[in-house]
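Lab manual, section 2.4: Encoding a predicted structure.

Procedure: take the sequence of the chain (108 residues), apply the prediction step described in section 2.3, and record the output as structure tokens. A sample record is shown.
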Amino acid sequence: MGTFCAVSLNRSEQALFDYVEKHPEERHFWEQKVRSFAAGHNLHAAADRVEMELWYYFRERSSQVPTLIELARQNGLQRTSMRNLAEYWLRLWGPVRRPVPKTPEAFG
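Recorded output:
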């Protein structure tokens, strides 16, 4: 289908993922956007925001990018979830969450 991704993406998410991976300037744009959302929100709120932005981006690009044009032609532009891609990019590019060390008291 496209570049390997370790999560299950729907067709729209996969097409967008492949497009961004093939275009370094687009990837850089999304890395910065995801990092900025992650820095200013808890991860759930950041995922909501990234997911919404991905949908707007998909709609905008589906009038310009041949593979996205074809996908939009086949499926229409019904609202499609971009949550899996948003969460994947937050894990990939978001802040590093270090595990909290367990204290001896936690072991009882």
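Check your result against the sample. Helices lie at 11-22, 24-40, 43-61, 66-75, 83-93.
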